[in-house]
Amino acid sequence: MIVELTIDCYTGAYWEEDCIKVIEFDTNSTLEFLSYSILELIKFDHDHLAIFFAGREASYRSAKIEFCEEDGFELTLDDIFPLPKGLQLFYYYDFGDNWIFQIKKSRKKPTLPIVGVSYPRVIKEIGPNPDQYGPCDDEY
Question: What is the pTM of this model?
Answer without folding.
Answer: 0.90
